């Protein structure tokens, strides 16, 4: 019997204030969790955990990491103590090392805001075990696509793989605030990205810095692009993306989301 594979997902998590703002991306994420059932746990690849080589957190209960500054005090009081899954973390470590990629476990780290913000919106009852995988400090697109390919067996083992970053994330380049408008260059990059993902053009995606318009503006520091590549890779060779959400937030933050399948 052929096991049915789960799709993999990429979501854009925006700013830490997303759960408190009446914007389309929040509504989308709040509705998204109910669309995926029959899975055992979520593996989240967040843009906000960088390590030299891949690391998985392996804790019984996830602490909430408030890894941001300059926001209202009530945001630092939000807690999302979802269960972890040390067993699945160990199993995933074995899959990654079997693919020839070094991987470690972290027995203390919880969820950073790149993970707990979308999970808070998707699973507010905290009834889904969640474990997290880091991105690598080299921010090499081919490396992150290959890392995703190592995770593919999980899609047949009732693990929902969610990459969390930003379709367009010009932090440090654009002025981002609630009243900002969306620049033409951001729209142009976003349209290029849609085509590359929906046609499964991995060659262009791993070379996006040279092939996409305004890549140096859309991702001046490409940490938020790596989870997208890992989520796509996890869907398997030949995967294509299906656009499931597209909106703008704080001007030039592209909040695109995709499902990946073969």
CATH class: Alpha Beta
* Main beta-sheet annotation: 6 strands, mixed
Count of all domains: 1
Rg computed from alpha carbons, rounded to a whole number of angstroms: 17 Å
Question: Outline, from the CA principal axes?
Answer: globular
**Average pLDDT value?**
96
Total helical elements? 9
Distance between the termini: 18 Å
What's the name of the CATH homologous superfamily? LigB-like
Order of strands in the sheet with most strands: 5-2-6-1-10-7
Overall description:
By secondary structure, this protein is an alpha/beta fold. The protein has a single domain (about 10-260), classed as LigB-like (Protocatechuate 4,5-dioxygenase, Chain B), CATH 3.40.830. About 30% of the residues lie in helices and about 20% in strands. It has 9 helices and 10 strands. The strands form 3 sheets. Strands 5-2-6-1-10-7 form a 6-stranded mixed beta sheet, sandwiched between helices. The protein has a two-stranded parallel sheet with strand order 3-4. It has a two-stranded antiparallel sheet with strand order 8-9. Helix 1 crosses helix 3 and helix 4 (about 140-150) runs parallel beside helix 9 (about 225-235). The radius of gyration is 17 Å and the shape is globular.
